[in-house]
Amino acid sequence: MSKAHRIGLIGLDTSHVEGFTQLLNDPDDPNHVPGGKVVAGFPGGSDDLEVSCSRVEGFTQKLAGDWGVEIMESPEAVAEACDLVIITAVDGRVHRDLFERTAPFGKPTFIDKPFATDVEDAKAILRLADESNVPVMSCSSLRYAENLQASLQENSGEAGNIIGCHAYGPMEIQPPLPPLFWYGTHTVELIVTAMGTGCQRVQVVTNEDNDLLTAEWADGRVASIHGLRNQHCQFGITLHRKESAEFIDISAVKQPWYAGLLEAIIDSLPEGRSAVQNAEMLEIVRIIEAANESRATNSPVVLKA
Question: How do beta strands 222-228 and 236-241 pair?
Answer without folding.
Answer: unpaired
